[in-house]
Write a structure and sequence with these properties.
The complex is a heterodimer.
Chain A: E1 11-12, E2 15-16, H1 31-34, H2 49-55, H3 79-91, H4 114-121, H5 123-126, H6 138-155, E3 159-161, H7 167-184, E4 193-197, H8 203-210, E5 214-218, H9 228-234, E6 239-245, H10 257-266, E7 270-275, E8 294-298, E9 315-319, E10 331-334, E11 339-342, H11 359-395, E12 415-418, H12 420-426, H13 430-438, E13 456-459, H14 467-486, H15 488-492, H16 518-524
Parallel strand pairs in A: 4-5, 4-6, 6-7, 7-8
Antiparallel strand pairs in A: 1-2, 3-9, 8-9, 10-11, 12-13
Helix pairs in contact in A: 4-11, 6-11, 7-8, 11-14
Chain B: E1 5-11, H1 29-37, H2 44-55, E2 61-65, H3 72-77, E3 83-84, H4 95-108, E4 112-117, H5 119-129, E5 135-139, H6 153-164, E6 171-179, H7 181-185, E7 191-200, H8 216-229, E8 236-239, H9 243-252, E9 262-265, E10 268-271, H10 276-283, E11 288-293, E12 300-302, H11 311-317, E13 322-325, H12 328-333, E14 340-341, H13 346-352, E15 354-361, E16 364-370
Parallel strand pairs in B: 1-2, 1-4, 2-3, 4-5, 8-11, 11-13, 12-14, 13-15
Antiparallel strand pairs in B: 6-7, 8-9, 9-10, 15-16
Helix pairs in contact in B: 2-6, 4-5, 8-9
The chains are: A alpha/beta, B alpha/beta.
Bound molecules: pyridoxal-5'-phosphate.
Residues 106-107, 166-168, 201, 203, 245, 274, 276-277, 298, 313, 315 of chain A line the site of pyridoxal-5'-phosphate.
């Protein structure tokens, strides 16, 4: 048989074709199933008698309570088996280094420069211990101090805590500060309502509830923008504060944001700006200049630290001068000679997490800002917005797609699209399009809660991608929607070239089947 | 092999016939004749076929239906040989045929009854089977105010398939509404809530990998908990119809007339299924609050299905004492559509417009505009 020259298939009439992607698909068991008695990796030699005599029984120095009675039941595997296992699993991943990662909108999946990972892995950082004496950790403390300075400049706020490890943890922290503030004025019982908008990230409503507040949610007005009149109807002497994302998860920037802040301040509430995703406004607008009292940034989004499949991240909380005293302890401080951890903060809400912030996350973010400079940060925002609006225009060329709310207007850094028309015409759902898109090697995501936009899809290109890459992504989505029209079964039975399987989601809607813990699982599954 | 599931199918052959020729409805033989004379072509067969096709490969299913235009034709159009029961006079079917067919389906023990039509058809199905049979509407009529209809034939087919394949287990009571057609043709809108059918229900518009949702049931329980916790002694609570409000009486351990208005005082039921006059009587010398929900899919708060709570009563109770309850899911489904009222009294309507706080869960409110 003649050799096939696949390079011949990359172009048609000088135009690139879709990549012929095919992902590894292993029927890989879990490592406990691979275990066979007696299989093992490298055997570490026994300690020589001489050393034993000198050192004594090391284990005996550990308290009884932390000593195992029996060895752990780990799977027994050889080293090459372990390597193969994890390499295979990694091949089944549509990770950020493999695909054109714009399909996880709201998450700001920008490129995380590898050199910053190398810095974070450097022994000088990796071997630090958080309980080490401050005198021996001056380097990282200085870096945290300087990084705080950068965040102050970016937001206009007066102090920052780097302690919370995620955006939601930061929102919870800010909600706790709101309560501490009203308590300090003797109004904590009266002011128990937090206002948010339906398209603010759902962490805002959720964290306000977790912190014990009542939540009032505003819906967009007829023009698709957050509704100022609704806010006016919502505020009262019960208002504790406003938790708001801007631009919202739809990518829409609230043009009346200053009036929002004013209305809430007049009612006696505080205003918190969820800037988890600040990618479209870095160097362009500042939370404090708009009048906000508190804000937070996700270092694992806007500041390029990787998301790490859910952590560790960084949710840096910023406060105005008046509220800084409530920030979690300790804060990193400098006395002119020495950096130190300041625990002497009597009004602080306390700790929201052990230690002072995730050092490798802060280091990556710091390195990223240093590599860009102030001008560079602004350029990041400009390119992110430009990329997004280019993508928006290209995407809307695809029949069956719309960008509901404030239609026809530009967006900031992301868009929540709707395939409602396509679904009505073809019966193919947004999620099915996403699974088929994986066959072409790209990730595509629908939406998180609340499910207000029908058949949603949320894209955020960030500044990291080139026009060619955006075009390639659009070509894939366009191709898949074309298939939805000509051969819907092909889309509905996807994946064909990728590792993922379709999953039965119905248990997700069934409380009796949920299990958040192993114990709950055993109870609900009818076991012990 | 597992026993085949049974799907009942009823097509109202004259559904929708009035719409295209501007007749605002299709009920009554006279209107139907007039429509045909005006050149109306029945679309309902098409729409029923679309829904059936969406169910896909039907080998695992037995379709039970009525002869000819009442279902047999639609099944055959997608290449299925249905089990045909009952008898009709072709070209002269009536509402009674729909009712008879629905009763027969119940007797045949179908797992789900799929029916194509409009509000009148839903009402006939409801009259025949009540809440004893899961049912779902394929929208084909001129008037679709009832929440028992899927948004289009494709989604009706899809929902039916998911339910029959045991992929969704939730049933949800949805409103059967109908207009007074005689009044409607004269330009007067007046709608009535006739009851509820049990329909398969998928909580989320998209199914999402990340976010489990407890379903509407959990929202209703959470709303009920909120309202009951905040109930005050010696206030009269006038509780409007619906499943959302019924969750509140459930929380109180009281019974509820689903389509009627009930009255609670100090956590006890003091009157059930009251009319306007009885309400006025009860209101004498008492402070009261009204608890109502909106109608799914259309957002009406007062004036559809709860006319017992008349403008006079609303006026007496006062705007600040009206508690509107709705699951977040019901609000999402409205999209950008505002809530509305049509009490029949312009002043009261005007008083009710503006922004209201809807109770959406325990300590959760949504601000929505009433227009
Ligand atoms: C605007 C916004 N706020 C808050 C969060 C929550 O952040 P995290 O996932 O780190 O808890 C996100 C994350 O998606 C977000 O986009």
């Amino acid at each position: 048989m003649a050799q096939q020259d696949i390079t011949q298939q990359r172009y048609t009439d000088g135009k690139p074709n879709l990549r012929r992607f095919h992902q590894a698909r292993w029927d890989e068991p879990i490592n406990f199933e691979l275990s066979r008695e007696g299989q093992r990796g490298v055997l570490v030699p026994e300690v020589e008698e001489e050393i034993k005599d000198q050192v004594g029984d090391v284990l005996a120095t550990l308290p009884l309570t932390v000593r195992r009675k029996a060895p752990p039941r780990l799977p027994e595997l050889s080293q090459p088996q372990v390597l193969r296992h994890y390499l295979r699993l990694s091949q089944e991943n549509l990770g950020a280094d493999l695909n054109i990662e714009i399909g996880q909108g709201t998450c700001t999946m920008k490129y995380s420069p590898k050199i910053n990972d190398q810095l974070a892995g450097h022994p000088k950082l990796a071997e630090l211990h958080p309980l080490q004496d401050e005198d021996t950790a001056q380097g990282i403390l200085e870096m945290m101090y300087r990084f705080e300075g950068m965040l102050k400049e970016i937001s206009g706020m007066d102090r920052f805590s780097l302690q919370p490890a995620a955006g939601s943890a930061a929102i919870y922290t800010n909600a706790s500060i709101i309560r501490a503030y009203h308590k300090s004025r003797g109004e904590a019982d009266q002011r128990d309502e937090i206002i948010t908008t339906i398209f603010s990230h759902p962490s805002n409503a959720a964290c306000a509830r977790t912190a014990g507040f009542k939540v009032i949610t505003l819906y967009p007005g007829q023009d698709g923008y957050p509704d100022l009149e609704a806010l006016k109807a919502a505020v009262s002497e019960r208002t504790a504060g406003l938790l708001i994302t801007n631009p919202e998860d739809t990518g829409i920037f609230n043009p009346r944001i200053e009036a929002f802040v004013e209305v809430v301040h007049e009612a006696g509430g505080l205003c918190v700006y969820d800037q988890a995703n600040a990618n479209g406004i870095l160097g362009i607008t500042r939370a404090r200049d708009t009048g906000f009292d508190l804000c937070h940034f996700n270092l694992h989004k806007s500041f390029s630290s990787p998301h790490g499949c859910g952590g560790p991240g960084g949710g840096a909380c910023g406060a105005s001068e008046a509220l800084a005293k409530f920030l979690p302890v300790p804060l990193v401080a400098y006395d002119g000679e020495k950096y130190y951890l300041d625990y002497d903060r009597p009004d602080s809400i306390g700790k929201v997490r052990p230690f002072y912030g995730d050092a490798p996350v802060v280091l990556r973010a710091y390195a990223w800002v240093m590599s860009l400079g102030a001008e560079g940060l602004r350029e990041v925002a400009e390119i992110a917005v430009l990329n997004n609006n280019y993508l928006l225009n290209r995407m809307l060329e695809i029949p069956g797609l719309s960008a509901p709310y404030a239609e026809g207007k530009r967006r900031i850094e992301q868009v929540r699209y709707s395939w409602e028309t396509l679904t009505e015409e073809t019966g193919v759902h947004s999620e099915e399009l996403g699974i088929r898109a994986a066959d072409f090697g790209v990730h595509y995501w629908t939406s998180h809660h609340p499910f207000v936009v029908p058949e949603p899809c949320t894209l955020e290109p960030t500044e990291s991608l080139s026009k060619d890459e955006l075009d390639e992504y659009v070509a894939i989505v366009s191709h898949v929607t074309g298939e939805a029209r000509t051969d819907p079964e092909l889309v509905k039975t996807a994946p064909h070239n990728s590792t993922i399987h379709t999953i039965d989601h119905s248990p997700l809607d069934d409380r009796s089947q949920w299990a958040m813990t192993w114990r709950a699982y055993r109870r609900k599954a009818g076991g012990a | 092999m597992a026993e085949r599931k049974k799907l009942g199918l009823i097509v109202n052959p004259v559904a929708g016939i009035g719409g295209r020729v501007g007749l605002k409805g299709s009920d009554g033989a006279e209107i139907q004749r007039q429509a045909l004379k005006l050149g109306a072509v029945p679309q309902v067969l098409n729409r029923a076929t679309q829904a059936l096709e969406k169910i896909g490969n039907i080998d695992w299913l037995e379709i039970i239906t009525y002869p000819g235009e009442m279902g047999e034709d639609a099944a055959k159009a997608c290449g299925v040989e249905p089990k045909v029961i009952g008898s009709i006079k072709p070209g002269e079917t009536t509402a009674e045929d729909t009712r008879k067919a629905a009763r027969d389906m119940l007797r045949q023990g179908v797992d789900l009854l799929l029916f194509a039509g409009g509000d009148g058809t839903a009402r006939d199905v409801y009259t025949a089977v009540g809440e004893n049979l899961p049912a779902l509407g394929i929208p084909a009529g001129v008037k679709i105010h009832s929440a028992v209809y899927a948004t289009n034939p494709l989604s009706a087919g899809e929902l039916a398939a998911l339910y029959l394949k045991d992929r969704i287990g939730d049933l949800h009571e949805a409103e059967v509404m109908d207009l007074d057609e005689e009044a409607f043709r004269q330009g007067v809108v007046s709608a009535k809530l006739y009851g509820y059918l049990k329909i398969p229900f998928r909580t989320s518009l998209v199914q999402n990998l990340k976010m489990p949702s407890a379903g509407e049931g959990a929202s209703l329980a959470s709303i009920a908990y909120d309202v009951v916790e905040k109930m005050e002694d010696d206030w009269l609570y006038i509780i409007g119809p619906g499943t959302t409000t019924r969750a509140i009486t459930d929380e109180l351990g009281l019974g509820k007339t689903l389509i009627g208005v009930d009255v609670v005082l100090n956590r006890e039921l003091v009157a059930a299924d009251v009319n306007e006059a009885q309400l006025l009587d009860l209101l004498k010398g008492r402070r009261a609050k009204i608890i109502v929900t909106l109608i799914g899919g259309q957002g009406c708060v007062f004036g559809r299905g709860n006319q017992q709570i008349s403008p006079q009563i609303i006026d007496k109770v006062g705007r600040e004492n009206i508690i509107v309850v709705s699951s977040p899911e019901k609000l999402y489904a409205l999209g950008q559509q505002p809530l509305w009222v049509d009490t029949g009294d312009e002043d009261v309507d005007r008083m009710l417009t503006g922004y209201i706080k809807v109770v959406t869960g325990y300590n959760q409110r949504a601000v929505r505009k009433v227009s």
